[in-house]
Amino acid sequence: MAEQSDEAEIQKQTTLELWLILHHKVYDLTKFLEEHPGGEEVLREQAGGDATENFEDVGHSTDAREMSKTYIIGELHPDDRPKLNKPPPRHPA
Ligand code: HEM
């Protein structure tokens, strides 16, 4: 029984994990999902990608920006930055 619970818990945590990029910084928003005043869904939509434009479009307050610093876990490698603005690779038809 205990093993089943542990597995379920691990599964849950894996599903909930959420990283995204803002201004070349990497954010782990896993613990922020439920607190986000703009809702969980908008963050999920940005998961794993560069959310800078959408973050700025919303016009987040100074408070929101201050708050966001708490969740920075790293920085995108300079070599990977130019790749962010390129459209996704297209597959031949
Ligand atoms: C570290 C990242 C983020 C933090 C700390 C954060 C924090 C906040 C806060 C505090 C608010 C309340 C309004 C304000 O104070 O500006 C808010 C609203 C909102 N946020 Fe975020 N946010 C983050 C990322 C994002 C991202 C990536 C999106 C992507 C679309 C987003 C979309 C929204 C929306 C749609 C609202 C609601 C605006 C409204 O009701 O007028 N947020 N956020």
Automatic annotation (TrEMBL):
It comes from the Eukaryota. Pfam families: Cyt-b5 (PF00173). Keywords: Electron transport, Endoplasmic reticulum, Heme, Iron, Membrane, Metal-binding, Microsome, Transmembrane, Transport. Coiled coil: none annotated. It is found in: Endoplasmic reticulum membrane; Microsome membrane. Residues 1-77 form the Cytochrome b5 heme-binding domain. The keyword tRNA-binding does not apply. One of its GO terms (cellular component) is endoplasmic reticulum membrane. It is a single-pass membrane protein. Its main location: endoplasmic reticulum. The keyword Electron transport applies. GO terms for molecular function: heme binding; metal ion binding. Gene3D superfamilies: Cytochrome b5-like heme/steroid binding domain. InterPro entries: Cyt_B5-like_heme/steroid-bd (IPR001199), Cyt_B5-like_heme/steroid_sf (IPR036400), Cyt_B5_heme-BS (IPR018506), Cytochrome_b5 (IPR050668). Cytochrome b5 is a membrane-bound hemoprotein functioning as an electron carrier for several membrane-bound oxygenases. Belongs to the cytochrome b5 family. This is Cytochrome b5.
